[in-house]
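Tutorial handout. Part one gives the primary structure; part two gives the three-dimensional structure as tokens.
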Amino acid sequence: MIGAPILYLELGLGIAIRSVLLSISIAGCAKLFGICLSYYISARFLKKKIQVKFRANRFMRVLRSMSDEYPGKALSLLSIIQMPMLLKNYSLPIFEITIKDILIYFYSLQLLQSILFCIVGSTLDYTRQTSIWMDIIGYIAYAATITVFYIVYKQTKKLL
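Part two.
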């Protein structure tokens, strides 16, 4: 919500907390809280300013027009584009979609990213051994993230 680089926090969380599931839970709850709070703040107080700010951005205009017909694609693309999380979260109200869609499409991809970085962070602590199952889950999370990002990337190329 404050614009801090989330990736480093999730990696650090994976290193600092001995339980991978606990670090994933904390990261997931923090992202959910940040998304909901920034959505409320921006919808309630900043919507007009955000619309003016993003009016000149071609990609955000495409996403905004796509969100009427394909809210899932628009939110998935917004979730993986390379821009600060702060801007992603605060731009959600301009799409005029339901919280349910935000949770299903936007938050689920953000949670997948949290899982990946918390697992990677937990493997960076060389003082403890990880089980083979945690390595397998890490590889699955990594493969799923790459696959989802590739699918969304292909969809983006069709739009632009």
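Part three, for discussion. The chain has seven helices and no strands. The mean pLDDT is 77.
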